[in-house]
Amino acid sequence: MISAKLIENLEKEGFKLNFPSYSTNEEKIIEILNEKNERLLLALPLILKYEFDYKEIINKLIKLNKKNELIQTFNKIIIITNEIYKKEKIPNLTIQNIIKSNKIKKKINKNEFNTYYEEFKEAQKAKENSDESNLKDQIKARNKININKALLEIYSPGKIQIMEKIFNHEKLSNTELKYYYRSINPLINAILNEDMRNYIKLIQGLKKHT
Hints:
This protein has helices at about 5-10, 25-35, 40, 45, 55-65, 70-90, 95-100, 110-155, 155-165, 175-190, 195-205. With about 210 residues, it is mostly helical. It folds into 2 domains: about 5-130, no CATH class; about 155-205, no CATH class. Helix 2 (about 25-35) runs parallel beside helix 5. It starts with a helix and ends with a helix.
């Protein structure tokens, strides 16, 4: 098995490894429980917000562990998850129904609950930051597309290519530099001219009434 340390290091270098995904949420939950890793167990409250079949998981856990150790762990985390969702005001009817219908009763250690709760909050915050970052990237990409469309209405592809090089801080050849000042710069100055912009806005406003 490839170590997590190596995978993380390779991904920092831009090398991505493709791994098979889980076909069901139940499969993912069972594997986390079966690892018997305290660090991994902290992830369960994040996963239990998605739909899962409690009885299917229990039946498979019975086959894996005759002493039902994993089942006891799972039930404990379900209780902890329910308390976390209550505290965070997250709708959790599925969890509540599972606890009620299966008569799950577990005393929660305060320190243990706090450990799960803090991890849950940190993970939620990290996900929100990631989602926000992805949204910003999407907005930038859309803006880039819109800018390129607008530029194509004004400049030829060759001129746009030179402007891209300038934007990316790439050095222009002497020929490109001369071409920029002769054919590109005058139009840029015209676009930035405030009187010209006001004139165009006036034309647009009057056109609507003609």
